[in-house]
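Entry 12.
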Amino acid sequence: MRVLISGATGMVGTHLVAELSRRGHEIWALARDVEQAYTRIPQARRILQWEASKSLDPKALSGVNAVVHLAGAPLVPNVFTKKGRQKIYGSRVLGLRKIVDTIVSKPNHSVDVVVSASAVGYYGDCGDDLISEEAKAGQDFLANVCVNWERELLQRKDLSSRTVSLRCGLILNKGQGLLKFLEPIFKTGLGSILGSGEQWISWIHIEDAIRAYVFALENPVVTGPVNACSQKPVHNMDFSVLLGDALHRPVLIKTPPWLLRSLPGPTEELFLFSQRAMPGVLLANRFKFHYPSLYEAFTDLYGKDTTPKKKTHALPDLVSANEDREEHYDLDGTSHSHGQIYIASGIY
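Predicted 3D structure (tokens):
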């Protein structure tokens, strides 16, 4: 199968190109800097120059059987400025529109399937609710980006190809993505629980994310929106403590919500919104996660011993220690709060 990939030089793109090539597929890629792209994805048979703001040359679709749209300006730091948020929107929504427009302009095109990235940010803040692919969209900035992103693909009645939007959780890979930003902070001992720490994080190991993309490409029964995240989401406090353990640093502080909300841009959406998504479509189609728990994911990424060695007692706010809530963790990962005990099932 000849696969055309936009955003092929990013974290997901480089891994996807390598895996698809290993599976015998022929890779064509779209990139802003062709010369640099060849150094990052040497497996690509052909790389074409393209920017999301420009129309796509129809020749880029010659003999192409599948298209994967991964191009998108990174959320951080772009989300903090108006111009950056325009880049986030344009690179995803307008970029996909240009690609689909080119496909439908070719009556005899050979594209059987189009798979686009999306995100669980589609759902907005959902508290403790379990989120299936049928859940309603949120009303915030990031949800609006995802809604319009998916509309360019899933609601195009003039597109005859099978279409899939992968609503990815936080993609975890050592030294890349959000972990690239978090690792130096946690290594210096400044890793923090954000707000109450009770907000849910939907996540997925990079290997499982790539396998989900391949699964969507190669399985004709998969269509529409698909939650690409582990079936074991975790609370922010559990994520932070386990990342600290993986990096051999304690997590001793909490960042109060008001401080996060004082940052420019929709930072509340990034740091405080709760999304407890379930990979219903993947599981229904017998997709098997290699790393279903966060413990297994961090063990693979950072080494074999990420089990907490000792209790992490009351975590003071970054600014004040006036919280009347106290948490600590036992050796088995049990969290104690206000005398109640629960097992954070997403950890193990």
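Annotation: The domain at 2-175+202-228 is CATH 3.40.50.720 (Rossmann fold). Residues 310-345 have pLDDT under 50 and may be disordered.
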